[in-house]
Amino acid sequence: MGGPDGGSRAGGPLRTSSRSRLGTAAGFDLAPILLFWETTRACGLACRHCRAEAIARPLPGQLSTAEGLRLIEDLRRFAPRRPVLIFTGGDPFMREDLWELSARARAAGLPIGFAPSVTPRLTVEAARRMRAEGARTVSISLDGADALTHEGVRGVPGHFAETERAVRMLVREGLNVQVNTTVMRGNVEQLADIAALVASWGAHIWEVFFLIKVGRGTALDELTPKENEDVVHVLYEASRYGFIVRTVEAPFFRRVVAERRALADEVDPAARFGLGSLYRRLVDRLRAVLGPPGESRAQSVGTRDGKGILFVAHDGDVFPAGFLPVRLGNVREDDIVELYRRHPLLRAIRSASFSGRCGRCEFADTCGGSRSRAYATTGDPLGEDPACAHRPEAGSLPEADLGRGP
Ligand code: SF4
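# iron/sulfur cluster complex -> structure
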């Protein structure tokens, strides 16, 4: 399989093997891989795509220490695996009881990760404590390759240098560091240079988030589907430089990973997939700053909102993901294990019961589209993801009418 006419888009074999390897064996119907707990909304930053102002104190209704400890105990009941519990926010370091919670998670045998904001609270001592607690990953946001762009998003002068210092410090302290980047019109041309920073700072994972039009994210210019297609192919190329690359709210990256892995070496991907000038510019830049590529480390585990992923908000409300505001229940009154396993929406998401292009797509199981974006755009969490350029009914390449390239 592979080559210009070799059927790399043919979905049958890919879909079958993906189902058995990822869907059943990984037990997505029984337990999530990742559970994000928004421990608090409090945060010292005021990022453009998050909120207008910093929030100094917890909002009313935040889960108490006792409720948090109970949630951790409840998560122990997930089987065949316990999910990785990600302490996120807001800034989880704004919770005075964070170490008590993480110690309980460790005692409960839950793998953990942290998603702190880069503030003076992120100290060497905090890094050592996270390591001592057995943190699997620590994720840090970087939204530009230079101070002007990054600080334009983060709203704090000097934050770019602080972010570099934080990433390097965490790497030095032996933590597995993930750099998170939100791709938007204002930084898309910098993606190759951001990838170069990820590599030179020694980070292990680059996670690239694609905007969902909710809240302040609305004001930030989304990319067209055709540009998204260029970008996910660029991300595949970036994954050839020693760090893992994955996406958030762009599961069609996995379609592209499958397509690229099936492509013969001598075939030009830009020609094969009809990619635009954005792709060519960014790949040229990648080669210029990082040199010849190696093997891809693109991550292609078939999770999506509600399938392998679950989100608990600061007040205990449970959602399929942080950007999918369909409330499933609340940990104060519902059994989180039962919610994950039995909620009709999550079951429909996991069985790929979608409408529109995602419903007809040969990649429905491995990809399935962003459920958050489908909901934000159509009001239907099972609708199609409008950010994807793939046209399953055509079985062909992204077409020019799907969006303007630069
Ligand atoms: S049409 Fe939907 S399921 Fe198919 S690749 Fe695009 S986003 Fe994924």
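# post-check
Residues 159-172 form the longest helix (14 residues).
The two ends are 32 Å apart (CA to CA).
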